[in-house]
Amino acid sequence: MSKFARDPVHGEIEILDEFLPIVDHPTFQRLRGIWQVGLAHLVYPGATHTRFSHCLGSFHIAKKFDDPLIMLYALIHDVGHPPLSHVVESALHTAGIDFDHDSQSNKYIRDILSGTSFSLRDLKRAMKKGTLVHGDLGVDRMDYLLRDSYYTGVTAGILHWSRLVRLIRAENNKTVIHPKSVESVEQFFIARFIMGSAVYLHKTNLIIGAMVAKAIEKLLQTHNHKDIVTMDDHGLIAAFRENTESKKIWEKIASRDLFKRVGVFENHEYAESECDRLVSKFGEDNVVIGRRKAWYKPINVVLETGENLVDVSPLVNSLVDADKRKQYSFVAIDKKFLKDIKK
Prior knowledge:
By secondary structure, this protein is mainly alpha-helical. The strands form three sheets. The protein has a three-stranded mixed sheet with strand order 3-4-7. The chain has a three-stranded antiparallel sheet with strand order 5-8-6, sandwiched between helices. It has one domain: Hypothetical protein af1432. The model has no long low-confidence stretch (mean pLDDT 94). It has 19 helices and eight strands.
């Protein structure tokens, strides 16, 4: 028998009987304890929604494709996320650790599917149409734009996803769209561009991410990264507080006593040299470095005519170009040293 979840974004979400064992699995339930947009609630207080609700939302949108395998993939696509979502994943990369949440998801799949009618072969078949889930116009992005918009109050993410679902399909690892859908797709990319700038890559969010990277660096002295990535947010925060060095940084984050930017640079190598100079003067625990990287990766969307969307739409092309112009590196410092910096 199906069950229903009440969702503020989509209304009632029906969880079909064959998917209930997945939702009830401890690995999936862990997602209740992982904030969807990391520590963005320190900038947007309402943004405390979770990966759990996002996965249900992605599943709900995927039902419009009327394909159980796409629904399966949409439901479990995020089960490998580390605590604090992309914040910790980026922090691990900064620490030189090769971690990918998709690869981590693969470690859980066999166990998650063991109590269902689905097999690994079914999931592999679904992944052949994977762009409908994780592609440029996939259900993952459709839901997180809507959901993050709702919880942050940044209304730019509101979009009419049902039309997009009706007019897209997967073919040879590309998203193929009907020519009539170009304007709807342009609206989607505008929404994603604004949400990227206003929320995901907000300057304060980036500073918080750099501070988390510093806390993770300290935590790795006492914890194996393989243990860290299986925690939920509360487990990671507890680990920060148990580690003397990480605790100092986490308490600054938690009390919103955040570092302040003292330099923004186009050249990352120059930012690194400035960071080293400040570290030599104020100590490594009081200085962080970060980057505002590209938000758009190469767009893999084509029209049924075979033309690439970027070539057909001057608007989307301009958004990609504008995103490149927004990239920068920065150095931030404990604000108690700001007076010394000004001198």
